[in-house]
Write a structure and sequence with these properties.
3 domains, Jelly Rolls, 407 residues, Outer Surface Protein A, domain 3
Length: 407
Amino acid sequence: MHGEGLASDRQALARCVGDPESFRAHWGRAPLFSPADSLPRGFDDLLDLEVVDELLSRRGLRTPFLRLAKDGVVIDASRFTRPGGVGAEIGDQVDEQAVAALFADGATAVLQGLHRMWPPIIDFAIGLGGDLGHPVQVNAYITPPSSRGFSAHYDLHDVFVLQIAGEKRWIVHEPVLEAPLRSQPWTQRRAEVEAAAETGEPVVDVLLTPGDALYLPRGFLHAAEALGEVSAHLTVGVHVHTRQSIVQALVELAEDELELRRSLPPGIDVAEPGDVEPELEAVLQALRTQLESASAADVAEKLRSRAWRSMRPGPLAPLLQASAMSTVLVGDEVRLRAGLRAILRGEASPRLVLPDRVLDIDPASASAVRALLDGGVAEVGDDGGNALPLDLAQRLLREGVVVPAGA
């Protein structure tokens, strides 16, 4: 299998926490501040203020890839977008002049979805997602001097804060709800959040400077304020798979249990406990039967299907790929597409399982595909063994499974 579990070197994770093994004790449980001198390198190779200006002014950026906020309130996009002009008659391109005025007035700029549009961050996000085994997204927050963009709140995903420029003070409080699910946003507990932030003792009160990193498990309350100059940081959101995901997989498997699909009786009052009780007993008995027969393999397949579709593979150059399909030769090398999740199943009738489809594989080529998944690179050949047959290499190029090794 390729792309599951922790990567062997975990370089992307090490950039955020220093020692990945020590980080395990904090994962999902406690914040971790990592000063720059404890980390392998800074983060300005991923993004800097010049790149921010380029994205805002020269890339035809549209909403929702940018939002602005001031004093905890999101600014309506109509205030900083306009039609793109001749040849780009769309109504929501970023108006850099309006952004400049709002930023000068204290608004924080949030560049969203950088894991989809800025190459260094695309590569970093693929690596970190592979290291963690959980999908990641990357936004950038650029805050004017001595300003706060968002009031105290909690996120529904874990967060790595990577400071790029300037200084920002972070104040973190204990959760009002530990490990919240996607259905439990902080706005449902606004009064509790505000009270805890105003009266509670912070568990973290730290000034982040360039190269510093801060990890926050989901649920921890946090607010940040730029000090003295423009501050910029990356927020890496980790959309964690939870044990609730396993419960959901078991519920999906329960659809195969006939007794759980039966209709409730006619005349039932579903608001009356006495009417519901006998049906609840029948459901619990059917669930016991279903749960006792459920296997880890069954659950893993349900989790795989959902998780793999949420983790987009690395970019593929369409023109180069199209050319490679027709020009690949024996002796060339191809590599597995970055970030692609794939597994080979079956012996007599091998199948290459991908996030969105399944490819039948000639049994004679199974060992070559298996070697590709294990090693990431394969030679195109005609002598069997671990070499990919030419026709299979062409097919995998067409399917976007592999790319030219030098790409």
